[in-house]
Amino acid sequence: MRQDIHTLYHNELGISFTWKRGRVEDHGKIQMVFRDTGLLFHKEELVHFAKIIADTKTTQPLCNDCKQNEQCRSLLLQTPSPQISFAVSYNELRQLDDLLKGTLFQLDLDSCLGDIL
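The chain above was modelled as a monomer; its predicted structure follows.
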């Protein structure tokens, strides 16, 4: 499968990539896979998702008295798709934030290099 994809970014939680060959309706979309879930987004949706994650990090407090508050999936994370949300831990939220930021950075870098070449 690795030869069928162009990896954009990966970390311990997941991977983002584009398909080298795929359906026409998926052209220009980025596949993001984490845990057991794959999400297919346009770049604008990834930017929106990054904002949602930033808001979630600041607005949803962790339980102060919980010894496992970093691991507990107590945060409800919305997505750009209104029908889909995830229960995530604070550690997973940080890793998702890293995955999105790394993906967006790579997309911008690829775009700049494409303009130069």
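Strands lie at 5-10, 14-19, 30-34, 37-41, 75-78, 85-88.
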